[in-house]
């Protein structure tokens, strides 16, 4: 028999329970890198400390890949998390997943039925920013989204995560079952509110009574989620296999740090994640803003300007003193002032900790990975803050260079004339703009006119357009490293 995580002797102890102990009280949509190292791990630590039976049914909806769910099933839904500090590596075998499903394995209806199961109390999500099918500026359901168009036409066989949730809520409503909590764990500003707008937006197009039931019964708490979890690579998997004593294709490496701040608004119970270090608060929004602007805004700055400067990983950018200085100034001078935090939060200490986390050389977090989907990330990471500065007349030169870096990056050609593999839902729009204007400064105004990223006002703000145009031109004149140094 082939050796795997379940039948081999490993260097790390197995959880002291089997999947029999668990009930699928949570269905998670988007079993990717992050969920395995975050929500599933928090739940595992609760299971270690209590007699809880809260477990996950893991669902991946993307039709191009069922392999992770298949591999998890082969390992009785167990897998390894490797927490990698600067020097030490700590392995944990996680035991909070009960079962796994995929439309290609189980069919769409079985997944909707599972989400409507009376035992299910939480549907949690890490489906990436684009998974919400909303306009990032308004937060409203995007009825021109290609999956939403399909879901409006055929609600019983949905394609989008929002369509699946709406279909499952319909069954719960029709069967008079208890409502559930929809728990977004994505890096989206006011993620619970966005999830609610998206689901209600779709439900309203289908059935007013269903929409009213959702509005009054279903809760959508906001959450701030944090842990740097790069996509697994063959190298990280080989390193983990060596330590573990057996190959685990579902293993994932991450940093030691983790944080989870959750609005305590659950309609049908929840695990005591506080036992594993989560914080339950009344208002998560300030924490989300802090993380999105200081951590993610800094990440995107380093991703675009780092990639252009020839750095493959975030930790590589941090070896350049100019990038280090610039990203620290971005956090403290241009992002921190835009925040209103509870008194006990020290933003300088937060920024110091971020520098330390970004420096961790054991994490091979690719600048290319973070650069992905910029159209979905820029509004909450940079544009909100730029608007804040424009209102007050304060300095935002790092943010302007960050936006220009994004424009230079999505041109699709790097500083050596090599192609860049740009991944973004708006890629076709970008290609059309660059095809028309080449890399000339004309593209700046064209890109700023994309409302779903920049809203309506910025393209008409002369000062802003000038600043981004100068920064963009400068990137061509001197290159990213010099432009960052000149800040
Ligand atoms: P991943 O690529 O490993 O997983 C993404 C998951 O989302 C996959 O399961 C995929 O099937 C699903 N997905 C993608 N597009 C979808 C769509 N349109 N509809 C439904 N499902 C879709 O990415 P990872 O690292 O797990 O990150 C996922 C999200 O988690 C991020 O976009 C972010 O919002 C959040 N997050 C990630 C962190 C990280 O460091 N990786 C940390 C904090 C939050
Ligand atoms: C990153 C985030 O990929 C990205 O866009 O900025 O996934 C980041 O690693 C996490 O938010 C850290 O919690």
Automatic annotation (TrEMBL):
Its EC number is 1.1.1.57. Coiled coil: none annotated. Signal peptide: none annotated. InterPro entries: 6-PGluconate_DH-like_C_sf, 6PGD_dom2, Mannitol_DH, Mannitol_DH/Oxidoreductase, Mannitol_DH_C, Mannitol_DH_CS, Mannitol_DH_N, NAD(P)-bd_dom_sf. Keywords: NAD, Oxidoreductase. Residues 283-475 form the Mannitol dehydrogenase C-terminal domain. Residues 25-274 form the Mannitol dehydrogenase N-terminal domain. The keyword NAD applies. One of its GO terms (molecular function) is fructuronate reductase activity. The keyword ATP-binding does not apply. Pfam families: Mannitol_dh, Mannitol_dh_C. It comes from the Bacteria. This is Fructuronate reductase. The lineage of its organism: Bacteria, Pseudomonadati, Pseudomonadota, Gammaproteobacteria, Enterobacterales.
């Amino acid at each position: 028999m082939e050796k795997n995580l379940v039948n081999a002797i490993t260097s790390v102890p197995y959880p002291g329970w089997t999947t029999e102990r668990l009930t699928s009280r949570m269905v998670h949509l988007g079993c990717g890198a992050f969920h395995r190292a975050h929500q599933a791990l928090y739940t595992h630590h609760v299971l270690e400390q209590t007699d809880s039976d809260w477990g996950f049914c893991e669902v991946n909806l993307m039709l191009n890949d069922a392999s992770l769910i298949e591999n998890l099933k082969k390992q009785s839904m167990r897998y390894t998390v490797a927490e990698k500090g600067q020097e030490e590596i700590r392995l944990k075998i996680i035991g909070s997943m009960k079962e796994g499903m995929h439309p290609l394995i189980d069919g769409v209806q079985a997944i909707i039925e599972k989400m409507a199961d009376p035992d299910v109390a939480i549907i949690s999500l890490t489906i990436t920013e684009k998974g919400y099918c909303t306009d990032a500026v308004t937060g409203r359901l995007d009825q021109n989204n290609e999956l939403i168009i399909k879901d409006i036409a055929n609600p019983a066989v949905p394609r989008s995560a929002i369509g699946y949730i709406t279909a499952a809520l319909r069954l719960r409503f029709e069967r008079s079952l208890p409502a559930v909590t929809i728990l977004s764990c994505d890096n989206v500003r006011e993620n619970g509110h966005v999830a609610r707008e998206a689901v209600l937006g779709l439900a309203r197009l289908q059935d007013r009574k269903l929409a009213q039931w959702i509005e009054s019964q279903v809760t959508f708490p906001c959450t701030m989620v944090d842990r740097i979890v790069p996509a697994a690579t063959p190298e990280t998997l080989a390193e983990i296999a060596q330590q573990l004593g057996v190959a685990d294709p579902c293993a994932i490496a991450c940093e030691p740090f983790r944080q989870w701040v959750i609005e305590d608004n659950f309609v049908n119970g929840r695990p005591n994640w506080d036992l594993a270090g989560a914080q339950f608060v009344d208002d998560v929004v300030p924490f989300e803003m802090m993380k999105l602007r200081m951590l993610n805004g800094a990440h995107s700055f380093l991703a675009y300007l780092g990639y252009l400067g020839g750095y493959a990983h975030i930790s590589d950018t941090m070896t350049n003193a100019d990038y280090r200085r610039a990203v620290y100034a971005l956090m403290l001078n241009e992002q921190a002032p835009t925040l209103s935090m509870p008194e006990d939060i020290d933003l300088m200490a937060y920024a110091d900790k971020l520098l330390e986390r970004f420096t961790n050389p054991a994490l091979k977090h690719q600048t290319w990975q973070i650069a992905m989907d910029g159209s979905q990330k820029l509004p909450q990471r940079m544009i909100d803050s730029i608007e804040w500065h424009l209102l007050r007349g304060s300095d935002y030169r790092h943010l302007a260079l960050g936006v220009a870096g994004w424009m230079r990056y999505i041109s699709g050609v790097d500083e050596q004339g090599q192609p860049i593999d740009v991944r973004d839902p708006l890629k076709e729009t970008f290609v059309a703009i660059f095809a028309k204007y080449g890399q000339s400064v004309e593209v700046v105004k064209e890109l700023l006119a994309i409302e779903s990223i920049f809203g309506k006002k910025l393209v008409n703000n002369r000062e802003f357009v000038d600043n981004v145009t100068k920064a963009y031109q400068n990137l061509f004149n001197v290159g990213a490293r010099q432009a960052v140094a000149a800040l």
